[in-house]
Every structure is written in C-alpha cells, then in structure tokens.
Amino acid sequence: MRRSLNIRLAPIALFLFGCSQSIGDRAWYYVYLNHVSEYNTATRTTVGTLEQLGAEGDEIGMASNSLITLIDSIEGQLLRDAGQVDIRSQQTDELPALDQLMSYEVSTALMIGDEPYRPDTGSLSAYQLKMHIRDFLDRIASITGQDKGLYSATLNTDDIQQGQVLISWEAAGFYHLPLICVLDRLNDIKLKVRCVEMQALACHTISPKQLTDDEVPGGGEGDH
C-alpha cells in the first residue's frame, strides 16, 4: 500500500513515477508546468463561454470556483509546508529547490495524516476535498437538471476495492506520493472541473469563447 500507485493519478504522473530513475527532476517540473498551462487554457475557454449563458452560467461558475479555490488553498499550503514559493508562476528557467518537491511526507501530513485507512478530516484534507467535489457535482446536476452520473464519470471520487480491502479515494490518491505528483493530481482535478463545466454547457447552443489573460483574474499564471 505504501509504495503502490493509484490508477486515479494523471497518466503522465504514473509514467513519470515509474521512470523516476531515468529522467531528471527538471523534467518532472516541466511536465507539471505544462499541465498548469493546459488548465489555464481550459479556464479561459470555460469562463468565457459561461459568461454568455447569463444567470445559469453564473451559478455554474460560482460552484466550480468555490471548489477550485479550495484546491488552490491546498496547493498553496503544500508549497508553504515544503518551504517553496508558488512554482506555478515561475519561469521554467527558474528551477525551484526540487528535493522537497520529491518529498513523500509533506502532502501525506496535510492531506491524509498517519493512518491511510482513517484519513484526517481537516479543512485542507483529501477527505474534505472529496466532500467538496461531491457537493459540486450535486450542485451542477441540480442547476442543469441532468443526471449526476454524467458528471461523476469525469470527476470520480469512488473508493477502490483491492481484494478484500476497500481503500478510500483520498488514501488511494494522495497517500505517500511525491509532492510533485500530488500537485499534478490536484491540477488534474481542477482541469476536470473545467471539463464538467463544458459538459454542463453541452445542452446549450453556445459557441466556445476563449478569454484573454487580462480578462481572467490570474489567467496565464504558470502559462509559459
């Protein structure tokens, strides 16, 4: 359990973890920044499109922004605990101290605690993140009148059965993993939140509109 990876990690994170002895720390860092860039691009598109929808778009945007704000808070606390500045806004030639980004302890201490089968439930824990994701999916389904299953297929928080043991979503996704993998995992969740937004818009005949960096607060951060 302590060394096993979970299928819920972003595919690239799985690949990098398995090949960690053959690639440099710099590659881990660049891949993470590339995924942040993908999230920023998705944000510019979804926010711009939601603005065309009026009140319903505002409700969807508020629900997703509330969840993303929580994830941003978790990311920020993880970086502070690791003694890092916010690497999402750094230029790619300004490599941070990567030893702490490879730490297994930082993310486990904040998000899970000492016992993976009884994860902590603090305000920035993986458990609270799971609860907020589920509330978000309920809210989106309520706003759109569509089946929640449409959205939970994209943003799944089900526990995982391994043999006779049921492993919680939070332990499977965040326990005893390098911090850089956890940061990438959190960014992947934010990207899936944007995907859910676009799914919610699928029933409307609205052309996607991408905002510029200046039109999105914080837009383009980490997009190098």
Task: Please describe what this structure looks like.
The protein is mainly α and 224 residues long. The protein has one domain. Helix content is 56%, strand content 3%. Strands 1-2 form a two-stranded antiparallel sheet. Strand 1 and strand 2 form a beta hairpin. It is globular. It starts with 10 loop residues before the first helix and ends in a 23-residue tail after the last helix. The N terminus and C terminus are likely disordered.
Compose a concise summary of this entry:
The protein is an all-alpha fold and 224 residues long.
Helicity range? 55-70%
The H/E string reads: HHHHHHHEEHH
Report the end-to-end length measured between terminal Cα atoms.
36 Å
Label the structural class.
Answer: mainly alpha
User: How are strands sequenced across the largest beta sheet?
Assistant: 1-2
Question: What's the overall average pLDDT, rounded?
Answer: 77
- The share of residues in extended strands comes to under 5%
Supply Rg. Answer: 18 Å
Largest sheet: 2 strands, antiparallel
Approximate shape: globular
In total, the number of domains comes to 1
